[in-house]
Write a structure and sequence with these properties.
This protein is an all-alpha fold. It contains nine helices and no strands. 86% of the residues lie in helices and 0% in strands.
């Protein structure tokens, strides 16, 4: 029993290491194809429209209610210490440092990431990717690289929108609904938010955008040739992307603080 358990652990460890290596080679090969003509600018713009623009509504909606909840909870927490004037800084720092990058990336994963996995997976099952190879069109250059670039550009822009909308959501609840002084709200943000906070949020959003597009494209590209395999790949892509975002957020936060 002990030998079987050790063997099972060893097989699992080898599978994980092999999968990590294949994912790394997949990403490096995709970026390498970006430097080789023909340059797929139209595909990058198309994917940026899909990942960025079409995710705007769900990101704005999530940001508004997240900011309003922060304003509500923050007000009643700070009121216990007589520090309602610091509500603006509490909302802004929470949004810029953590909630903006994490929640926006999770929303992009749920909306765009799952769709990317399903799209590429269907192309794999229906042998459209093999057809691209037959026509001397590299699938990594045509399908994957534009999505990776669009994720690197689109997610930080969505995070910036998320932060702004979230701060205004906190303003709506804190100032307009609960009566916090408007000047105190904005001045506390100005005095508390520093460049390192903004820089940390930008760095997180870029890395999260890469994680989402990378994992979802990889899972779709190596989908098993069945309808069940497509469903499994989509589920694994969303779950793995979400978990990696949260884990990587912790490590980045520990380094940036």
């Amino acid at each position: 029993m002990i030998v079987r358990a050790i063997a099972k652990i060893g097989r699992t460890a080898l599978f994980i290491v092999q999968e990590m290596g294949r994912m790394l080679l997949f990403a490096l090969a995709s970026f390498a194809w970006l430097a080789r003509p023909p340059f797929r600018l139209f595909q990058i713009v198309k994917q940026l429209h899909f990942i960025g623009y079409k995710s705007t509504f769900v990101v704005v909606l999530t940001a508004a209610f997240t900011g309003m909840v922060l304003g509500l909870q923050g007000y009643y927490t700070l009121r216990k210490f007589g520090s309602e004037a610091l509500l603006g800084s509490a909302v802004a720092l929470s949004m810029i440092r953590e909630l903006g990058p994490v929640l926006a990336s999770l929303m992009v994963t749920a909306r765009a990431g799952s769709a990317m996995t399903a799209e590429i997976g269907i192309m794999r099952i229906t042998e459209q990717i093999d057809a691209l190879d037959t026509m001397a069109v590299n699938p990594l250059q045509y399908l994957i690289a534009p999505k990776l670039v669009a994720g690197l550009i689109g997610v930080p822009l969505l995070v910036a929108i998320f932060d702004v909308i979230g701060i205004y959501g906190g303003y709506l609840v804190g100032v307009e609904l609960l009566g916090v002084n408007e000047g105190s709200y904005w001045s506390s943000i100005e005095s508390a938010v520093e460049w390192k906070d903004v820089y940390g949020g930008i760095l997180k959003s870029i890395s999260f955008g890469l994680i989402v597009s990378w994992v979802c494209c990889y899972k779709g590209f190596y989908t098993r040739m069945s309808a069940e395999g497509l469903g499994t790949a989509t589920t694994e892509a969303v779950v793995l992307s979400s978990v990696l975002i949260l884990v990587w957020d912790y490590f980045l936060t520990s380094v940036l603080l």
